[in-house]
Write a structure and sequence with these properties.
Number of strands: 7
CATH class of one domain: Alpha Beta
Radius of gyration: 18 Å
Structural class: alpha/beta
Strand content: 15-25%
Helix content: 25-40%
Length: 245
């Protein structure tokens, strides 16, 4: 994992993550060459934001999540999924045991050759490796106050600098036994009230990892910059996938 201490900060805000992080549009999965009888793995599953969507579509869903607090919520809200502790570099599954591996809003934590090798190991030949993530839809106007968005961008730029030198994900996937990389996106809205927006801010690693006094100061400033809401925030759900050769 790129920065284990930083990644473990999510356990400080697991409930906020569950309450305030965006869901994924079901249409994102429509183009995957997977049948409803598939056995799939959600790797770095968090609180199960993608896991619950997978259980609605595929016969067997396994979720692997290293953080106890996040995994406890997943087990509570998605009891139909099999849940295991584990990491991307040491997946607790046997060789060739699943038809697909999904990583939702998580691949930046383990975009390395060891993890890609493990993903290839547990995939059956012809299986699918799919990355799923949400991001702001810059092509549509935002309902958020301009000063709030400017401050969030400043925090994000400072906090995500550890990933600046990371290679493109297509390049990382290409170093493994995978074919052509495909990409698609689906626009959708993430609707939050004022407290939901603050919970969302609490749940991101570049806020959750701050010392208590700094984190509280950031949240006070964000609260000052917000209007009442609710806010329908334009999002893009993204998917990038390739087939194991």
């Amino acid at each position: 994992m790129a920065d284990r201490a930083r990644a473990r900060s999510f356990d400080r805000a697991a409930e906020e993550y569950e309450r305030a992080r965006a869901e994924y549009p079901p249409e994102l999965l429509d183009g995957l060459p997977l049948h409803e009888d598939a056995e799939v793995l959600d790797l770095g599953a968090g609180t199960g934001k993608l896991t619950r969507l997978l259980t609605q579509r595929y016969r067997r869903v396994i979720a692997v999540e290293p953080l106890d607090g996040m995994r406890a919520i997943l087990e509570r809200v998605v009891p139909e999924a099999e849940s295991h502790a584990g990491t991307a570099e040491a997946i607790p599954l046997s060789d060739g045991s699943v038809d697909a591996v999904f990583a939702a809003q998580a691949f930046h934590w383990f975009a390395n050759d060891a993890a890609v090798g493990e993903i290839a190991r547990v995939l059956r030949p012809g299986g699918v490796f799919a990355l799923v993530w949400n991001e702001p839809d810059e092509e549509r106007p935002s309902p958020l106050p301009e000063e709030y968005e400017t401050y969030i961008r400043e925090l994000h730029t400072a906090g995500m600098s550890i990933f600046e030198d990371a290679p493109p994900w297509q390049e990382v996937i290409g170093r493994g036994p995978f074919g052509e990389v495909h990409e698609a996106a689906v626009p959708h809205d993430h609707v939050l009230d004022r407290e939901g927006l603050l919970d969302n801010a609490r749940s991101v690693s570049w806020v959750a990892t701050l010392p208590d006094d700094e984190r509280n100061a950031v949240l006070r400033r964000l609260d000052e910059l917000l209007t009442d809401g609710p806010f329908a925030i334009p999002n893009r759900g993204n998917i990038m996938w390739a087939v194991r050769t």
